[in-house]
């Protein structure tokens, strides 16, 4: 079930493991995780560390990308569920995801969502082509995390919708490349794009939005000032963004802001 290197490493005492870990890069590195420890103990004739109905062994193996552990856990009767596939997709471990599915492990829409969120395009492509359930906001997750390749793929497949929230999340997190791609492909937006760019200090997103016709939010100047993003404030004021009256009164009390009124 396990490769010989992992079994040999596990059999070593701690000084031997430390010696092996300091060897040059041309040796196979071994990283034992909780899944390895639990299953190798069984392989040595020890007791099960947890009830086989508990799904954490398969989930942990999938998350760590340990296909050998996943195979062993499945052979020993450890339970797996949709969270196993989700963990494999979230970690970007296509081999584990494919093995789980080939052997009857269930999945749900979170497999695609986590693959998109964490930027694992190969897992995302596999899941969608294999008929994984789709629901929720995968485009939002990809845009919010700056996963442009996943965002492109989701748009091309037209499985998921995008909307104003998708653009807002890209701007909020400073992903101007995602924002640009979405606008080039017809995704709507509104003034909350400049609002969140101001709060988070993402000048490039603010500049792109303004230059491409996104309206100013009435609180753009206020929030840029509150959070000390003076480059955003200077750009907004220089490009016609107006303070609302309450914000103007507030800013007048601060000498460093008066030049922007």
UniProtKB/TrEMBL annotation:
Residue stretches in coiled coil: none
SUPFAM superfamilies for this protein: Pseudo ankyrin repeat-like (SSF140860)
Pfam families: Ank_2, Ank_4
PANTHER family, sorted: ANKYRIN REPEAT-CONTAINING PROTEIN
Protein name: Uncharacterized protein LOC112692157
């Amino acid at each position: 079930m396990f490769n010989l290197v992992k079994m040999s490493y596990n059999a070593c005492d701690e000084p031997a493991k430390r010696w092996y870990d300091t060897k040059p890069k041309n040796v196979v590195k071994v990283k034992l995780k909780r899944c390895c420890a639990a299953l190798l103990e069984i392989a040595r004739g020890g007791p099960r560390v947890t009830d086989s109905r508990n799904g954490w062994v398969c989930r942990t193996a999938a998350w760590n990308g340990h296909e050998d552990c996943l195979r062993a856990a499945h052979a020993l009767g450890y339970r797996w569920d949709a969270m196993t596939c989700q963990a494999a997709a979230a970690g970007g471990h296509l081999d584990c995801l494919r093995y789980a599915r080939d052997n009857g492990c269930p999945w749900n829409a979170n497999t695609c969502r986590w693959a998109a969120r964490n930027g694992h395009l190969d897992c995302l492509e596999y899941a969608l082509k294999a008929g994984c359930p789709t629901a929720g906001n995968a485009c939002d997750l990809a845009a919010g995390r700056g996963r442009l390749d996943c965002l492109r793929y989701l748009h091309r497949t037209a499985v998921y919708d995008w909307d104003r929230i998708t653009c807002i999340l890209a701007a909020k997190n400073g992903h101007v490349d995602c924002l640009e791609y979405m606008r080039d492909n017809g995704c709507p937006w509104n003034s909350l794009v400049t609002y969140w760019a101001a709060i988070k200090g993402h000048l490039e997103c603010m500049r792109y939005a303004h230059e491409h016709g996104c309206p100013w939010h009435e609180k753009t100047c206020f929030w840029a000032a509150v959070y000390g993003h003076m480059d955003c404030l200077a750009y907004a004021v220089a490009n016609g963004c107006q303070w609302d009256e309450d914000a103007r009164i507030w800013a007048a009390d601060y000498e460093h802001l008066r030049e922007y009124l």
